Amino acid sequence: MVIKNINLETVCGITSKLPENELPEIAFAGKSNVGKSSLINALMNRKSYARISATPGKTQTINFYNINEEMYLVDLPGYGYAKVSEKDKIEWGKLIERYLHGSKQLRAVFLLIDIRHDPSANDKMMYDWIVEQGFEPIIIATKLDKLKRSQVQKHVKMVKTGLNLVPGTKIIPFSSVTKQGRDEIWELVETEYLGNEEEAEE
Ligand SMILES: Nc1nc2c(ncn2[C@@H]2O[C@H](COP(=O)(O)OP(=O)(O)OP(=O)(O)O)[C@@H](O)[C@H]2O)c(=O)[nH]1
């Protein structure tokens, strides 16, 4: 994807009305601090348009980034941050559910998992929940640069087993430091979800 312009168009909190967008939406979920903002910045070719937080749990809203007036990247609130109150966790859950149920343009949900660790109980719950909502999440295994190359396959397997993935689920290892995986994600989005394949010559 050639990024021509980006715009953080809508920010929704727990009481907000969600937008009724006309363009396709691609959403990103993941536990707090997994590297979601860093991924979204990398996809947009920006250093710090989406906030990268030193404080986990900062992303408490659903943010809609308009890309080229062509589609939206949708940043969902990070989950699993211990310091968030139970009440807030429930409210965020409801907000995400409202979005997953309500959006008419949501084409795909990417779930981010830290490649270094076994998926947490929250990760597993989130994965199962997204599947229950009728989506087949694509897994992005983040912070790839933190592993030695020889460890990668083992860790990909760990993620697969830990989440008990539906057979055939894609896992894309990604690093926002080296940008490895970035092109693969865009290619998947463009060909599978935006239908931007080259028109066949008549
Ligand atoms: N080494 C390395 N560090 C990363 C990578 N991605 C993110 N980080 C670091 O991990 C921390 C969290 O990154 P964010 O992108 O803010 O994570 P987030 O998931 O948006 O966090 P919340 O705002 O809590 O939801 C930051 O210190 C980043 O610099 C990566 O691919 N490699």
From TrEMBL:
SUPFAM superfamilies the record matches: P-loop containing nucleoside triphosphate hydrolases (SSF52540)
Keywords: Cell cycle, Cell division, GTP-binding, Magnesium, Metal-binding, Nucleotide-binding, Septation
Cofactor: Mg(2+)
Keyword hit for Magnesium: yes
InterPro entries: G_ENGB_dom (IPR030393), GTP-bd (IPR006073), GTP-bd_ribosome_bio_YsxC (IPR019987), P-loop_NTPase (IPR027417)
Residue ranges occupied by any EngB-type G domain in the UniProt entry: 22-195
One Pfam family, short name: MMR_HSR1
Protein's job: Necessary for normal cell division and for the maintenance of normal septation.
PANTHER family: ENGB-TYPE G DOMAIN-CONTAINING PROTEIN, MSS1/TRME-RELATED GTP-BINDING PROTEIN
UniProt cross-references to NCBIfam families, sorted A to Z: GTPase_YsxC
Family statement: Belongs to the TRAFAC class TrmE-Era-EngA-EngB-Septin-like GTPase superfamily. EngB GTPase family.
Name by which UniProt lists this protein: Probable GTP-binding protein EngB
Organism annotation: Ruminococcus hominis
Gene from which the chain derives: engB
